[in-house]
Design goal:
This protein has about 220 residues and is of the alpha+beta class. Helices cover about 45% and strands about 25% of the residues. It is elongated, with a radius of gyration of 22 Å.
Length: about 220
């Protein structure tokens, strides 16, 4: 069954979240974008579609997005925001020795109390450690034979904490990150559990980021 021009245009735009935001903000060049997707739209609609029809569909979608601020439904979200200050962020070359030492990192954090911040992420080539600066001396001792790729101190981790697994709702991670990005807040790292979503940012951005994330649960779709 052939698609309508409007539904196909919206589908194409929605494939790329930041393109959707550019459209909503009024920054998209309609003519150039219409020319770039006219073949795809024509094929899906089983007819030759004029660029003017695509431009009209884009204008209508832009108007719809602006009415809702392009947001997902967030007014029913209930969460608290926890701010972890004095966070250091370190990135190492991944080695077997370093991976084997990860358990020791958690033991150190446990000895210093439950309030110490520690998050470890491993990828195919790196090990990333977010940690309370009070634990840095111990961490540096354990990783002294590892190759440090990057280090940043004076960071903050802002965590959105739910009492239920709200993080499984579609759009929550995107909507949170989108609003931070549009407010020029650079996110160094994002990590989550089923009840918590955390952003590691610079301390100088922490109060603005807190406001943005707090406003998320008050906004209307």
């Amino acid at each position: 069954m052939a698609e309508s021009v409007s539904s196909k245009v919206r589908e194409i735009v929605d494939k790329t979240p930041f393109l959707r935001d550019v459209l909503m903000k009024g920054f998209l060049n309609y003519s150039n974008f219409a020319d770039s997707i006219i073949d795809e739209v024509s094929q899906s609609c089983n007819k030759n579609v004029q660029s003017t029809a695509i431009i009209m569909a884009l204008r209508r979608y832009c108007s719809d997005l602006q009415k809702t601020n392009g947001s997902v439904a967030t007014e029913n979200l209930k969460y608290t925001i926890v701010m972890h200050t004095n966070i250091a962020y370190l990135d190492f070359v991944k080695t077997t020795e370093l991976v084997q030492q990860i358990g020791a990192l958690y033991k150190i954090a446990a000895k210093n109390g439950a309030n110490e911040f520690l998050n470890v992420l491993t990828s195919s080539g790196t090990v990333t450690i977010g940690v309370s600066e009070s634990l840095l001396p111990s961490i540096e001792t354990i990783t002294k034979n590892s190759t440090l790729l990057y280090k940043q101190t004076d960071m903050v981790a802002l965590s959105m904490v739910w009492s239920s697994p709200e993080i499984q709702n579609p759009g929550i991670v995107y909507e949170s990150a989108r609003r931070l990005a549009w407010n020029s807040i650079n996110v160094l790292e994002i990590f989550s559990t089923v009840t918590e979503l955390s952003f590691v940012i610079k301390r100088t951005d922490s109060f603005e980021a807190y406001r943005v994330l707090q406003d998320l649960q008050r906004s209307k779709s």
